[in-house]
Amino acid sequence: MIGKIAKMLVATLLVICVLGLALDYLSFIGIVGRHEPRCLIFRGSVWAVLGDMNKATNCFNEAIQRDPKFAQGYYARAMVRESIKDYDGANKDCSQAIMLQPTDTKSLFLRAGCRANLGDNSGAVRDLDKVLELKTHFENRLASVHGLRGCFRLSITDRPLSTKDYQDSIADLNRYLESNPQNESDSRLAIIYASRGLSKDKIGDHKGAQEDFGKAKQLDPNVPLPLSTVIPLRKHK
Question: Is the dihedral of CA 82, 84, 88, 94 positive or negative?
């Protein structure tokens, strides 16, 4: 399995390199402008795949300088910034891309993750609301977006959580689990069950909460459960 994955990665890199050479050739003969923004975005993407984030960022910076209204340039730079955990910079780039192109679901989804990492989970939920409303580019991943939103709902700190918040979280997490995710890791599924367990406990379904906490521990004995200290597991007759 590992050998197959390695071969696929090598093949992907070869294709990218060939495309890069083709782009250089087209630039050389004058068909494609070397400094045309789309060309710069492609070149930056190649550098990003090869792991040189500085060169990738330089390409995206130049693309934005040449066309400040080119939304894809901000999204591309946001991807790099998010990958190096510059969540504030990525958040700002996503916001700029969304201002230029309000229906850009990829920027909305990326900004949701950045906002969550910055502690703005209310903002993250609003971004995912919009992604689920628009659906573009996420038609086959809607259940995953629901799962993410269900977790983000529980981390909102700018206001007290209501019963409806917990109910909405359960609905989102149910939608994710009902999709029967085949390729999800046990540790990720454990977090989903633990999160749903917390919501169930908060709305009074203590037996359901215990069942979910049990499933979480079964999937990953090391799953972080501050939940068990915040809400002691209750015994039921």
Answer: negative
Q: How far apart are CA 162 and CA 140, in angstroms?
A: 31
Query: What are the residues whose beta carbons fall under 8 Å from the beta carbon of 182, sequence distance 6 or more?
Result: none
Q: What's the pTM?
A: 0.80
Q: pLDDT of 217-234, one tens digit each?
A: 999 998 876 444 343 333
With left for phi above 0 and alpha for psi between -120 and 50, is residue 235 left, alpha or beta?
Answer: beta
Report all structural domains of the chain as residue ranges with CATH numbers, in order of start. Answer: 140-237 (1.25.40.10)
Cα angle for residues 155, 161, 165 (degrees, 5° grid): 85
Return the sign of the alpha-carbon dihedral for residues 149, 150, 151, 157: positive
Extract the tokens encoding 38.
């789309």
